């Protein structure tokens, strides 16, 4: 479980790419090991954000998410309840598919930050 300890950083849309790069570089320079980076700021995504996992110098793994105010709002306040219902084993597949389509529609309204595809 790599998200037991989770932090979120929010940058304005125009500063997300540069701010994220600066923070990632600072973590590495201070002895934190990059475990994973997943950038889902892509057209058609159900979820838009940058999720990273890092390991501290003493071995603790944590998640650090990067969002814009818009992507955080959709994730936290609009799509989260849909996500929770869609992933329940008791939710029929056809209902889950409708919920996922609605999450994708909600996320499609979030503008991708400039040069965000540079973060891989």
Please write out the topology.
Blueprint: E1 6-10, H1 16-29, E2 33-39, E3 50-55, E4 61-67, H2 69-86, H3 93-108
Parallel strand pairs: 1-4
Antiparallel strand pairs: 2-3, 3-4
Helix pairs in contact: 2-3
Descriptive tags:
alpha+beta, globular, 4-stranded mixed beta sheet, 4 strands
Structure description:
With 120 residues, the protein is of the alpha+beta class. The model has no long low-confidence stretch (mean pLDDT 95). Helix content is 40%, strand content 21%. The longest helix has 18 residues, at 69-86. The protein has one domain (6-114). A hairpin with a 5-residue loop joins β3 (50-55) and β4 (61-67). The chain has a 4-stranded mixed beta sheet. α2 (69-86) runs antiparallel to α3.
Q: How many separate domains make up the residues?
A: 1
**How does the major sheet shape up?**
4 strands, mixed
* Number of E-type strands: 4
Oligomer: single chain
What does the radius of gyration come to?
15 Å
Q: Uncertain runs with pLDDT below 50, 5 residues or more?
A: none
């Amino acid at each position: 479980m790599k998200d037991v300890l989770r932090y979120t950083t929010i940058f304005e849309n125009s500063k997300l790419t540069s701010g994220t790069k600066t923070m990632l570089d600072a973590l590495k320079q201070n002895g934190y090991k990059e475990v994973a980076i997943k950038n889902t700021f892509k057209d058609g995504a159900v979820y838009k954000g940058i999720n990273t996992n890092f390991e501290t110098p003493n071995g603790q793994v944590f998640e650090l998410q990067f969002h814009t105010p818009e992507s955080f709002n959709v994730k936290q306040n609009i799509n989260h309840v849909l996500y929770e219902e869609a992933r329940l084993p008791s939710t029929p597949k056809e209902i889950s598919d409708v919920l996922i389509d609605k999450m994708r529609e909600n996320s499609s309204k979030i503008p991708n930050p400039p040069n965000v595809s540079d973060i891989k």
